[in-house]
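Folding Problem: From Residues to Backbone Shape
Fields: amino acid sequence; protein backbone structure tokens
RECORD BEGINS BELOW THIS LINE
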Amino acid sequence: MIEQTVSGWLTDMDGVLVHENDAIDGSAEFIAELQRLDLKYLVLTNNSIFTARDLRARLLASGIDVPEPHLWTSALATAQFLADQRAGGSAYVIGEAGLTSALHDIGFVLTDRDPDYVVLGETRTYSFTAITQAIRLLERGARFIATNPDASGPSRDGSLPATGAVAALITRATGVEPYYVGKPNPLMMRSALNKIDGHSESTVMIGDRMDTDVRSGLEAGLRTILVMTGSTTPDKVDTFPYRPTRVVDSIADVVPLVAQLARSCAGNGH
């Protein structure tokens, strides 16, 4: 059971709120309820391709109104991590606007001349030339960072190779393992909590994947809700050595829970 005193909500995007460009039933109502009750929340995604502005437009076209400050991507989390590690550093980047914009915004220089880091994100146009350059820079001593470990991603036509698959190729060629910032690294959960000034004891994470969403929420000390509208199917839940706090059919089942827990929170003086 999810007990009383929940003042913050983190939720995955794909598989929880949307499928491709189609809203999942209850998602717009869920976000509207969080806003109506003035609760702290963030929508999270391991996808590093898009900027927060891009994602806002995508969600709005699906009928879900999420302001830019309430969107947190693995690209933004990676940029924040690098700013904390080496302010004003430099990076050779394989990725798209979501990642390059995030690194520019925190003051990083993007270069292929002796960068501090090779940063790998998701892109639909992986270049053999760019991958070769990344391998050579790592051989010269650059540090290896990847936005997320997802090996594949969905598309209308089937699976696509994603960041983790390309990272494995580079690792095989160099022997250098990347540090992954995105889920299931609980670092992404903690950075999200910091962004909303939230606390693990009073925040719930909603996701559709046991291996990323539930695991990272669990390791960050959050209570977790697994929805059955995405990657993890009901028959697979018990195959994992850990469990979510609650399993529901969809985000629509969480909408009344938000108000209920908000009332509990208010009743306890929080």
Notes: The CA atoms of residues 51 and 98 lie 4 Å apart.
